Each structure stands twice: as structure tokens, then as C-alpha cells.
Amino acid sequence: MNNKSQIFFGVALAIMFVLSVMVLSPFLITLSLSIIVSMLLYPLHKRLSKFLWKSNSLGAIATIILFYMVILVPISLISFQIFLEAQGVYSSYASSNVLEVSSVSSLNDVINSNLKKIVPESIIPNVDIRLEKYIGGSTSWIASNLGAFFSGTFDVFLKILIMTIAMFFLLKDGEKFQRDIKDLIPVSSDAYDYLAKTIKSSINFVVFGSLIIAAVQGIISGIGFLIFDIPNATLWGTVAALASFIPGFGTGAVFIPIIIYAFLYGTTFQAIGLLLWAVIFVNAVDNLLRPVVMQKSINIHPLFVLFSVLGGISFIGPAGFILGPLILSLLFAMVKVYKMKEISISKES
Question: Tens digit of pLDDT for each residue in 273-313?
Fold first, then answer.
């Protein structure tokens, strides 16, 4: 192929790639999630296919049904409960300004008075933390975003349908897709195998190393809030799951204010019980699960995970909770592969 032919096909390929991305852009996030979920469920699909007369189609159907029953339906129910609780908190704040006149305002004064003793005014003048402002803003964000999610019923069902169809074919024809991708990528077989292994490790890091641990901590936190009679336990359990991404603080960013609140305006039993629950059960999840998960995953500093989660949600939406950390971990993986390639080239030279 001469230079003119190479230029022509290169330009044509670039144009077709851009047009293809534009055509698929409404479904890119849904397809991305389908690929991630299919990769995670593929080992289960292989096992089920063996029991179902070695049929990839039946194995794919069974895998998808199990996924919906065990994962998607509980998540949907919990999300709806969070939506109701967030709407209730935000409505009470917006209608009666209950957060301004209630004990939260008193807790606000206690925190500010102690901060002024600790932090001299010469360093930070006019220290004033308004808890009701942040609580109101947080609950309004949750209520508005989840409200938009549940209001777009047709859009949600359409995306679930597309995701289901994509997952079926990705599971059924997964090996064929892998061979086709391997033929398309212009790298050696060893480099492709290493890259594929690194991508799987990245997905394991995002899903198991971060999301699953956060979800387990959120569930255990919510159970603790229920046991010790903290209002809106599901909502605060979810906030605790999100707080688990904060380096150095974790779920303590949620438990400490609630424990202080319980100690000042609740009962001593509530405060001590929540403290013990956080230290014994919630903290144990991080100490026991994280080292096990990280053994087979790419290790990324928690600070980058936090920013990737927040940035992903801001840029992509709710799906950014998964796609944000995954994109960042894939970047680290690609850099690692590139550096290894440079090392191998330098050794050869």
C-alpha cells in the first residue's frame, strides 16, 4: 500500500471512528456499564453454561436473571428509599426551616465556639460553620438527582433494556468478541494478554476494592443507625458509604457528627453504642476486606479514588460512581503498560 492509500484509509478510518462515536454516544455509558458487568459476570456465566447443557445462550439468560435478582432489584429498592428520606429531610428544611431552629443549630453553635478556641482569629478570622447549609444542600442534591432518576421512567426502562440485550450478547459471544478485539489491536500476543489482565485488575479494583467495600460499610452503618434509632438510617448509611472514599476520615466523617449529636441531644446509650458499632463493625470491614481485595488489584491512592468518584458523578452522572474510578485506573494501567514497553525496548537496544 503506497503513501497516498495509507493517508486515504487513515483519514477515512478517523472519520468513520468519529461518526461511530457520535452515533453511539447516547448509549456509550449504558454500553460501558454493560461491558464492565459482563466482564465481572463472565466466570459465573461459564459455570452456569456447563450445567445448562453447555448452552451459552441459556447460561447468559440465567446469569442476567441472577444479576437482576441479587444486585439490581435490591439497589433499586434502596435507591427509592433513599429518595423518599432525602425528600422528607429536604422538604422539612425548605418548608419550616426546621434545621435552623432545631438542635442542629445548637450543635452548630457548640462546634463554632470550640473552633474559635482552637483556631486563633489571627489565622482564620470569623470562623463560622453552618451545618444546616451543608445538610440542606446535600439533601437537596440527593433529592433532585434521585428525583430526576425516578421521574425519567421510560428512559430508565429503555437503558435497562439496552443493557440487558448488550449483556446477553457479550456473555453469549464473549470469546468471539475477545478474538476480534485481539486481531484489531496492533500489539503482540503477550502485550495484549498483559493489557487484558491489567484491565481486569482495574475493574476488580474499582468494583471490589472500592465500591463493594463502600457498599458493605454503608449497609453496616445503616444497620447501626437503625439499631440505635437514628432517623433516616438508609440515607445516612448511603452518606457513610460515600464518605468511605475520603482518605484518612472514611465513615468517621459521618459517624463522628452523629455520635456528638446523640451525646448532646440524644442518650448516652445511643452515643456509646454508635461509637462501639463504628469501631468494632464498620472499621473491621475496612481492615479485613481491603487487604484481601487489594492483593489482586491495582493499588491507587484513595485521594485519587475520591476525586475520580466526585468528578465522575459531576461529569457523567450517577454512572460516574463506577466509570470515574475505572477511567482513572485504566489510565494508570495504560501508563504502566507503556513504561514496561519502554523498559523492554531499552533492554533490547
Answer: 999 999 899 888 777 776 666 555 555 666 777 788 778 87
pTM exceeds 0.85 for this model: no
User: Cell numbers of 157, please?
Assistant: 426502562
In tens, the pLDDT along 328-341 reads: 877 877 777 777 65
Number of DSSP helices (H) and strands (E) in the chain, helices first: 17, 0
Helix or strand (DSSP H, E) at 45: helix 28-51
Phi–psi pair at 303, nearest 5 degrees: -60, -40
Residue in 264, 285, 268, 150 with CA at minimum distance from that of residue 222 = 285
CB 42 within 8 A of CB 56: no
Write 221-229 long-range contacts (CB < 8 A, 24+): 221/251, 221/254, 221/255, 221/278, 221/282, 224/273, 224/274, 224/277, 224/278, 224/281, 224/282, 225/258, 225/274, 227/273, 227/277, 228/262, 228/269, 228/270, 228/273, 228/274, 228/277, 229/270
> Is-contact 251 221, C-beta < 8 A?
yes
| Domain boundaries of the chain, sorted by first residue | 23-179, 185-349
